[in-house]
Amino acid sequence: MPGVLIADDDGSIRLLVRACIGSEGYDVLEAADGDRAWELLRQHGPSVALLDVQMPGRSGLELTRAIRADPGLRPTRVILLTANARPEDVAAGLAGADLYLTKPFSPLELCGAVEAALGPGPLPADLSHGLGAGRTR
């Protein structure tokens, strides 16, 4: 069963993501800081990681770089969640992440991004905010 890691210091965001994937049978892991998120990533190797860019411990950007540097985690789809919408922030995020969603986002946008990330094939570029481009691998 695919795993989903939700790493955000905002409990309401974690709850929203959990609601998005509902009872689909996914193994959902939660972390309120980047250090715990890294532990869960290493232990469970989830299929999708939703990472807040600014949270205690390791940032979402640091985690993204670590995921891409680890051969066992490299296939993990990464969705960054952030209030940082400046073009340079978006570009830095998309240098390693598959999608970049800026807060505030609608629950439908977030659910659509999670569903797309759990599916096969490349992620649609129009799911990312900011520069309007996602990564494909």
List the main descriptive attributes of the protein structure presented here.
single chain; 137 residues; alpha/beta; Rossmann fold; five-stranded parallel beta sheet; 5 helices; 5 strands; globular
Q: Explain this structure to me?
A:
The chain is 38% helix and 18% strand. It has 137 residues and is an alpha/beta fold. Strands 2-1-3-4-5 form a five-stranded parallel sheet, with helices on both faces. Strand 1, helix 1 and strand 2 form a beta-alpha-beta unit. The longest helix is centred in the last third of the chain and has 12 residues.
Layout: helices, strands, pairs:
Layout: E1 3-7, H1 11-21, E2 27-31, H2 34-44, E3 48-52, H3 60-69, E4 77-82, H4 87-94, E5 99-102, H5 107-118
Helix pairs in contact: 1-5
* Structural shape: globular
Helix percentage? 25-40%
Query: Can you tell me the CATH topology?
Result: Rossmann fold
Number of strands: 5
**Average residue pLDDT:** 83
Largest sheet: 5 strands, parallel
Number of domains: 1
CATH C-level label: Alpha Beta
| Spatial strand sequence of the major β-sheet | 2-1-3-4-5
Are there runs of 5+ residues with pLDDT below 50, and where? 130-137
Question: In percent terms, what proportion of residues is strand?
Answer: 15-25%
Instruction: Write the CATH architecture name.
Output: 3-Layer(aba) Sandwich
Total count of helical runs of at least 4 residues: 5
Structural class call reads: alpha/beta
Tell me the Rg in angstroms: 13 Å
At the fourth level of CATH, the homologous superfamily is Response regulator
In N-to-C order, the SSE pattern is: EHEHEHEHEH
Distance between the termini: 22 Å
